[in-house]
Structure formats: structure tokens, C-alpha cells
Amino acid sequence: MRLRCRVLNRKSRTISLMANSGDIVADRYTLTEFIAAVSTHVVHWRGYDDAGAVYRITIYSNLENDARDHLRHRIAELHHLVHPAMIPIVDTDEIESDLFVVSPEGRCDALTEMTWAVVITLMDVVEYAHRLGFTHGDLSPTTLCIGLNNEVRLFNFGLPVFENRWAATTNLSTEDRTSVNLIRNDRFAVACAVHEVMSGEEWHGRLADDVSTTPLGRAVTALISSNGQRPSIAELSSLVEGHEQNTTQLVPEVRNHSLPQAQLIYKDAELNRGSRSIPLSWAVTGFAVMAVLAGMFAFIAPETDSAGEPPIVRPALAQPVVVAEATEPALTPLEQARQERYQTEGRALADEILRISVQLEDMGVSLWAPESWDQAQLLSDEADVAFRNSLYEEAMTGYAATRDILKAKFEQRTEVLEQFLDTGQEALSSGNHERAIRDLSVVNAINPEHPQIDTLIDRAQNLEETITLTRQGRALMSAQDYSAAKEVLAKAVALDPDWVPAFEAQQELSEALAVIAFNEVMSSGFAALAENNYTLARTKFEEAILIQPLSDAPAEALAQVASQNQSSKVRFLLKQGTDHTGAERWKEALTAYSAALDLDATIVSAVNGVSLAEKRILLDREMTSFITNPIRLTSDEGLYEARRLLQSATRAKPIGSRLREQTDQLASYISLARIPVDVKIESDRETDITIYKVSNLGKITSESMRLAPGSYTVVGKRRGYRDARQELTLLGGQSPTTLYIACTEKIQP
After folding, report:
1. Is this model's pTM higher than 0.70 or not?
2. Domain coordinates of the chain in residue numbers?
3. CATH top-level class for 116-153+167-240?
4. Average pLDDT over residues 258-264
């Protein structure tokens, strides 16, 4: 299956090594914690899916086509690995040159303590994989963790890292650095990982003091040694003193890992869902399919590796399944191929059924689809029986039907959620708290993160009490005990702000109290008006408007206040306008006169004041424009306009100090506007100099001239060099100026 990967909040469409916490990949996994960078191509992240399950997400970035094809092929092959210490791959995805691999993490903590049992497990799992033709390639503390029952677990076994962590180690022989000896490198990596956990330091060529003095230090030394064949588990066990758990507690055959692997898959699914659990039938399905398939695989697995090493022994990580000696004849190649096909298909179906069933159980499927749920369980039980009786096609049909029923229910979850959400809200509106709690509980089970569900469930749980308080509040209102009614209704609304009867009762109470408050405030306003306290009177009448916005009485009272106070305010504004005019503060004068006209549009002095202020504001703006930008005077149009403006300014009345200063400055600029400026142009005699619209000076060392005030563009050209360009601005009366221009930047061929 090829799914597209989507990363939110990022410009790039690929996940790459630039992923950040909070990014979402494949629309279903949210990255939360960076774990480690294995190489320039591989990083490990921790994240969770839409259901809250925790995963280890390994990102392969910027892979070449051959490397990506190799990785896809290797992922497909890893279904052959069945070991209690190996955490399986549950999902993959890719986009462009990036690919990621997902494994369940659940409650798997970082490895912080090293024991002989851990060493045995690590050696057991790598030797098991080596017998089947797989290597880890990057076994380190970042790929190890401790499960809920103190069992050691490994991530990403068999996946290439494209840069071996230990390949450049000086203690590794030339032979060990070759791809042929990746098996020995895995054993070397076991020792390095043990050393790192025990000492807190990576291996750099010598044992740390707190490692060398321990019995485990001998095992580390033997595995790190660069000479000869690295020891097996049996050989290592003899090196460790004081440990009674040597080979006597190991199970001897690969096939004995079949049932523990099925247990492991079920346990991971359970742990990833927190305290929730899946139905026993689904566990049985996973157990049956995985146990049968692992047994099939163990039957065909080779007994020894190509290197002729001693038989591999395994730790008793879970109670082994005793496999009797085979009495049936050996399978034909066709039968073996058929079994392998059913192994692959069965594993995929078991994983999918287990994954979907866990999700549906969390969603309370037994509440909203009990018949389909029971049917799926019955089908899975029948398929289990068929599989155990070697009726593989019948079993696959049953498992597929189980999966289809579960998938159909899963796809209907949104429709079901909306249905129960509607009925739950209807029950809330009608006051049926039992029905509301029941239906909304289904919504919460399907999607606990629904934006409305927490509020709705709280409402349902408080509905009965809310109804009781509402009835009490209305009774107190009828008795005109408004204070007590207000308190009781406030409690009802606090419990459920959306309960309409409580809200309506509270509104009625508020209206009754508003009438009382309105009358009191209006009385206070008229008392203030009688005492000519216009400010207090206005405040009270405005307060009355807030209490009863639809009443005309406060507005009429405010009009009376304005009428009595208008004359004094107009006089004040006219005086302000006169003061600002004398000081040439024309904007302030305009504001004062305009405010006076707003109160009374018939005031002639205010009309004249506004007209004068507007004219003087415009005159000041034009004078400032020429004074701050005298380059405008270099054009005939600008010079004409400046002279016209100067005549207008000299005739303006009244003329104050600011206007007089402006007219004097502008007159000075006008008198200098046509006086040429001495200019000297210098160059390197290699550059051809041109003054646009004036003259082509050619290749010069220095050239002096007189130019009229204005703006000029001087350009230098030279073959094989970039053009040089400079802008020259000259003002009348300006001191002589010198300009150097030359082409110095060569053009690259």
C-alpha cells in the first residue's frame, strides 16, 4: 500500500531530516519527541496516532532510487522475523525520496541498566536473525528499550541505516569493516551498546573503569576484540562469574518463539491503548494466526548458519510452547510456498484485525453496533478453528470477512457519531437527562476529542439539578423575593449556561430589576440638572440609557442638558479658536471652530475661522513642500509655481513669524535656482563616460564643467566590465562637487 505523506506547518512537501515536533505525517501520526539521528539519512522520532497510541517513527530521508528500492524489499522480508524481543513494523509510507517506518512503542522505557539477562537477549536475537540472513546494522541504546515486564525490546531490526555506526571505529579490523562481516559488526555493536549503558559513554577504544571491573566487562571485552571469531552466547556465558543464569535457562529452538510473539503483539496493542483492552476473541485471533504462522516458519528455518557457529540458544522470555517432533512427511516445495503465502497473508490480516478491533473497542462499538460486533467475533472464532485444522483458504475467507465488517463499522463512525450527537442534544433540550447521558456517552467513546463533547456531557450530568433550581427561582420571583431568586437562578445558569428555561427566567428577573434601577437613576439625573451640575446629570441619564436602551426618557433628558450647557461651551470653543489663530496653530484652530459649528452651525465667527484655518493649512503645506525639496525648482514648472506661491504668501493676512520665515527661505531658493554649479568628473581613462542628455565625455582622467541645477545620470561603459551608473543631484548655490566613476567589475565569461 502506498500512501501519501503530508507534513503540516512546513513549506517543504517532504518529511526529511528537517521535521519538527508537532509535524503530522501521513495525516495520522503527530511527531512529539526527537530520539536520535542514526546517520545523515536516518532519524528516530516518537509520535502518536489519531487514537493516541504511541509509536516509534523512523524517517529515511533523501534516499537514492536503489537505496529506496532496497529498503522497500527489506521491509517486505522482515515479516519472516518472529522473535519476542523484536518490535514489529506496523506501517510504512513514503513521498518523493523520503520513507518512514512505524513501530508500536507503548510503555517501553529507555534502557538504563545492564544485566546479564539483557546481554543474553541481545545476543539471542541477533544470532536468531543471522541464521535467517538478517543483520541489524545499528544496534545501540537508541534502538533498545525495556517493556512493562522488564523484557528487552529492539526497534528496526534488519532495516538498513546506510551508514554503519561502528564502521569507522579504530578498534574494528579491516575485515570487520566489510559488508561480509556485518554479522560480526552486530556482535561488536552489542558490546558497544552494553558498554554505553553501563558507563554512559560511547565506546572510544578502551573500557571505562566502571565497566572493566565488572563480570560483564569480560563479555564486552570478548565481543569488542578485533581478532578472530566473535564468541556466541554459550561461549560468553562461561566468561561471566557469579551468574547462575547461563545457558541452562535458555530455550534451544527458534520455533519456541511462536506463542511469545503472538503474546507480544497482543500486549503491544493493549499497552498502546492505556488501560483499555480488546475482546478475548481478537486476542485469540492474533494468537492463533501468529502462532500457526510462526510454527510454519520454524519448521522450514535452517538449524545452523553458513559460518558453522554453534547452535543458537535463546532466553526464556516467555513460557515456551513445546513443539513435538514432526511425524508428518516433509512438505513439497509447492506446499511450502503455499504455507509461506498464507503466513504472509495471515500475518497482515491478524495485524489489521487487531488494530481495527482495538480502535472500535475504544469507540464503544458494542453500544452502537452490537450485532455487527457479535457477528465479527463469531466469524473470527470460526476462522480460528479452520486455521488450526489447516483449512487455510476457509480461514482466510473468515478473517477477511471479519476485517470487512470491522472496517465497515470503522468507516461509519463519523455518521454514527453525528446521529448520536443529534439525539443527545435533542434529549438535552427536552430535559431527558438519562437519554442525553446515554447517547452522548457513545459520542465520547467514538471521539473523546470532539470539540463539543465535554461540554455536552457536563450539561447532561447537571441537567436534573439545573431543572430543579430553575423551578425554585421562578417561585421566588412570584413571591417578589428578587434577591433570593437572583442567587438561585445564577446557580442554575452556572451549571448549564445553555439551558434555555433557566436563561429565560434569569432574563425576566433582570428586566424587573432593570425597571427599579432605571427609575432610581433618572431621579438622580433630574436632581443634578436642577443644581446646574451638567456633568453629573449627563452621567446619570447615560447610565439610564444602558439600563433601558429602548426608553425615550433618557434621550429627552440629555437634550435638555445639552440645551442649557450649549451656550457656555460655544463661547469656550470660540475663544480657543481665536487663541490658536494668533499663534499660527492652524490645525488646532480648525478643530476648535469646527467643534463650535457642530454645536451651532449658524455662528458666523466660527464659519470664518474655519475658512481661514483651511486656507492657511494649505499654504503652509505648499510652502513646506518647496522648502524641504528645493530640487523641484530646477524645472520651469516648479520655479513658476514657487514664484506664484511666494506672491500668495506675501499677501496673506495675518502674517506671523512662521509664515515670514517661510517666505524669506523660499525667496532665497528661487534666487539661486538658475545658478550653475561647478562639477568635476574623474575616471580611470579606460571607461567611456556619458552624462545622459548632456554630453558624451569619452575616456577621461578628469573633466570640469558647469551644470544647471537638477538631476543627472552619469554612466560608465567598458568592454568586458559591468556598466557603472551614478545619480547626480545639483542644487542652486551648491558648492563645487567632484564625481568619480569607473568600471571595475569584470564580466565572467
Report:
1. no
2. 1-106, 116-153+167-240, 256-321+330-411, 417-517, 574-672, 677-740
3. mainly alpha
4. 31
